[in-house]
Amino acid sequence: MAPSEDPDYDPGFDTSQPTIARVYDALLGGKDNFAADREGAALYLKYVPDAGRCAIDNRAALVRGVHYLVRAAGIDQFLDIGSGLPTQKNTHQAAQEINPAAKVAYVDNDPIVLAHGRALLATNNSTIVVTADLREPQSILDNEEIKNHLDFSRPIALMVVGIHMHFHDDEKPDEWVRTIVDALAPGSYLFITDFVDTGEPLQKAIERAGLESLGNGWIRTPERITQHFLGMPLVAPGLDFLARWFPEEPDADVPAAEDLEAYQRILMAGLAKKP
Ligand code: SAM
């Protein structure tokens, strides 16, 4: 029996409430989740039957973005905030399969990520996992492990992938990200995916699923998502639905937005370069 299925197993943290990382893990078909998380994932699937495919597509876009950053942009340092539980291919694997020396610092505020990440990375000196909160961006910049691992005088790719939706605009998440971007060298990148609102029922449905299961998970207009990039120029193809976002082949033939399945119009990706 997996620990997560044993009712007497004490992992050292509260498992009675769903967390973002564990619900996402359940949607991706992972094993690092508990009954409350699986109920949360079931709510997502109730309102958006293809929610699992949204999560898989988000991971695939993450890998495409990392490959572009290493191969085309020459990036060899990643600060991945809201990294989530380790899954099939993570930022460090995507980066290090092209440049084995690429360094990755994972940051997440869910302690389960640290526990599982440390086990996964026990033998990987190029990658660290830190528990910290995006809401306190200065604590990330001041973190000794991160400062020792990444060289802030050289370009870094800041990954804030699949996390903005969990903050309401009233919390001003763009200001937290700005604090970190301000500390990055010119030539750094900011990589974001977010839930989009172009007026479609299934987009509203995923917001409802998030609000009912986790109490967060808001959708935003493309104009509002564009503001996450703090005025920095976006690399081609700009902000677009994941299924149309191929930064290494921005001119490739992609389906027209209206030809995508409705679930493929739930998330958008974008990548900006700091001048
Ligand atoms: N970035 C991964 C991806 O796109 O596949 C994981 C996305 S998952 C939907 C969002 C992650 O953000 C979760 O692991 C969650 O624990 C983390 N998270 C949520 N709020 C956070 C915060 N305030 N600071 C750091 N991480 C946070």
UniProtKB/TrEMBL annotation:
Classification via SUPFAM superfamilies: S-adenosyl-L-methionine-dependent methyltransferases (SSF53335)
One MF annotation (Gene Ontology) recorded for this entry: methyltransferase activity
Keywords: Methyltransferase, Transferase
Species this chain originates from: Kribbella hippodromi
Keyword Repeat appears in the UniProt entry: no
Domain of life: Bacteria
Database matches in InterPro entries: SAM-dependent_MTases_sf, SAM_dep_MeTrfase_SAV2177_type
Coiled coil: none
GO biological process, one term: methylation
Entries under CDD domains matching the protein: AdoMet_MTases (cd02440)
Protein known as: SAM-dependent methyltransferase
Pfam families per the UniProt record, alphabetical: Methyltransf_19
